[in-house]
Design goal:
This is Alkaline phosphatase. Residues 406-435, 580-603 are annotated as: Disordered. Residues 422-433 have a biased composition (Polar residues). InterPro entries: PhoX, TAT_signal. The chain is mostly beta strands and 603 residues long. It has a domain at 1-144 and 538-603. It is built from 8 helices and 32 strands. It has helices spanning 56-60, 92-95, 102-115, 210-213, 312-318, 364-369, 371-377, 504-507, and strands spanning 30-37, 67-74, 80-87, 117-124, 133-134, 142-144, 149-153, 172-174, 179-184, 190-194, 248-251, 261-263, 275-278, 284-289, 293-295, 297-302, 325-334, 344-353, 356-357, 383-384, 386-391, 398-402, 437-443, 452-460, 472-473, 486-491, 497-501, 513-517, 528-532, 538-545, 550-556, 592-598. The strands form 6 sheets. Strands 13, 14, 16, 17, 18, 19, 21, 22, 23, 24 and 25 form an 11-stranded antiparallel beta sheet that branches. Strand 4 (117-124) and strand 5 (133-134) form a beta hairpin. The radius of gyration is 23 Å and the shape is globular. It binds MU-OXO-diiron and calcium ion (CA) (3 copies). Residues 181, 388, 390, 488-490 line the site of one calcium ion (CA).
Amino acid sequence: PDHPGHGPLAFTPIDPVGAEVDLLTVPNGYQWTPILRWGDPLFANSPAFDPSRPNARAQQLQFGYNNDYLDILVDPRGRTGLLCCNHEYTNRNIMFPPTATAEQEAEVLKALMAAHGFSVVELERRATKQPWRYVRGGRRNRRFTANTPFRLTGPAAGSKLVTTAADPSGRTALGTFGNCSGGTTPWGTILSGEENFNGYFVADPAARGSKRYGLTNTPSVYGWEQVDPRFDATKPGYANEPHRFGYIVEIDPYDPSSTPRKHTAMGRFKHEGANIRVDNDGTVAAYMGDDERFDYLYKFVAKRKHRPGKSAEARRHNLQLLTEGDLYVARFSGTQRPDGANLGRGVWLPLVLDGRSQVPGMSVEEVLVFTREAADAVKATPMDRCEDVQPHPKSGKVYVACTNNTQRGTAGKPGADAANPRPTSTQPAGSTNKDGHVIEITEHRNRAGATTFSWNILLLCGDPTDEKVRTYFAGWDGPVAPISCPDNLAFDSVGNLWVATDGAPSTIEKADGLFKVPLEGRQRGHVQQFLAVPIDAETCGPVVHDTDDSVFVAVQHPGEDGSWAEQRSYFPDFVPAGHRPGKGAWRGPRPTVVQVTRQRRSR
Ligand code: FEO
Ligand code: CA
Ligand code: CA
Ligand code: CA
C-alpha cells in the first residue's frame, strides 16, 4: 500500500542498509527532499555555490557545513517557521581542491572558518504536512561563524582565566565551533554544545588544563593558526584563548539583532549539548554530557524559576536563567541484575552551590573553566561517552545516550561498572563497549532539582544476532533492528524515543540511521528503523513532527573518507562518476538538512 499503518507517522520499518550504499533510505510510502544543502545562498547578496573557488565572504553568506543539532520551529499558523542548526566541523579533503599558493591556502582556511558555526533560516510551506522550502533573504536569516562575537555570561565571565590581549575584559569571545548537539529551550532559544574545541588550537602542553582537555603544541587539525594568531595559545597574549571555548552557547533565533552568549555557569568541557526540563514548580534543570571516553554526566539547576507565558517580561526573565545556578556531576552505583534490568542508584555531586565552589582548593572560576578537574576531584563516574542527554517531555525521565567506549576494559583503563556494563565477562578477551547503550534515569520523587536518582539500562545496543555481544532491549524479546552507537535523541508527540546513530559502519557494518523505540507498554524496547543515511554519513538532528507526518534529519559528513579527486558520495544531488554533470553542477557530497514526508498519492 502507498500509506502503510495507521495514525500519524505509522511506518513499515526499513531493513538495515549496507555501510557502502550512497542512498538515503526511507520507509515505503514516504519521500525525502533536501531543505538546505551546504553552500545554498541564504541572503539576497549571497554568491552562488562554487567550491572550485573557495571564498570566505561567499561562505559566510551561504549555508554552512556538517549540520549536527537541528530544530524546526514552526510559527503558530503552521505555514512559516525557522530552521536552526549548527555547523560542527569541516571535511576540507572533499570540500575544496588542493591549493598551489599560500594565498589560496589562506582563503581556504578562512572559508572553512566561515563554514563553521550556526544558521538560522526562515522556512515556508503551502500547507501543513507539505514539504518546507527555505526563504532566501528571510528577515530572520542569520549566520554565526568562527568570528561572530559571543558574550560570556556567568561567574567565570571577566575572570583572569578568560582574558586575552585582544579582549582584556574577558567578556567577548569570537566565534563558536565544534558545535555538536544541542537543545531548544521552552523560552524559544537554541542551546548548542561546543564539543571538540581542542582540535582548533595549538597550546602549551604544560599549561593548566591542556592535558585534561586534549590541547597539544602540534599543528592544529584545522590549521587556523596560520591565518589568525589567537588559535596559537603559545603566542603572547593568547594563553587563555582556549578557555573561551567548550561552553554551552545560547542563540535567540527570533531576534536577529541579539548577541549570542556562552554560559560559563554550565561549566566547560567537551559539551555535547544541553536539554532543559522545567518542573511543575518552575525549577529549571539542564542535562549535559561530556563526550569523551571516561568523562562525565552533568546537571545544571538554575537559581531562578522559569516564568511561564509569552509576555516580553517573561521572556526577558527566562533569557537570564542559564547565567546563574548550581552545577552537579553524576556518580552511579548499583549492582547488575541477571535479568539485565540493572536497577541502580545515583547521586548528583555538587561542584558549585549558591555561587560557591564545593571543590576544595578550587575557586568558582576554576571549577567553571576547568570543570573536568573539579569532577575528577569529587570522583564522578567515568562514562562511555555521553552524547544527547534528554528529559522526556511527559514522564520527566532522563535518557542518556552513551555512544560507545572503545577503551572500556582495555589494559590500564577502567573495566565495566554498573552504569557502563560492557564488556561483560562472557565477551571475548579484548572486547569493549563498541556498540554503546542508553540509560534511563528517574530523579528522586521525579523532581528536576533532586540530588539523588535511580536508573536502569534501557538499551544495550548492538546486533542481537551476534552471539559475542550481549544486547538488551528493555526486556523486549521480539525481533529488533540492529542498532549501534546511539548519539542524538528525540521524542515524538506520543512519547516514543527516537535514536539517531553515528558509527554503525565500523561496528555492525551497517549504515547509520534513525530508530524509533517505544518506552511504554508491551512494545517497550522494540527498536524499529525509520531511515538510513548515505555512505560515511552520520544521522543528526533528528526532529520528529509526527502530527505533521514529518521527520527531519541532518545528514552529516556524507562521503567524508573520499577526496576532491575521488569522491565517495554524491548525496543529495547524485551526479555519479562517469556521468557528465550540467554546467556548474557539483560532483561531490553536500551535508544537507532533509525532510521526510508522506508520499503524495499519484493517480
Ligand atoms: Fe560530535 Fe559527541 O558527537
Ligand atoms: Ca554527537
Ligand atoms: Ca536531541
Ligand atoms: Ca557524532
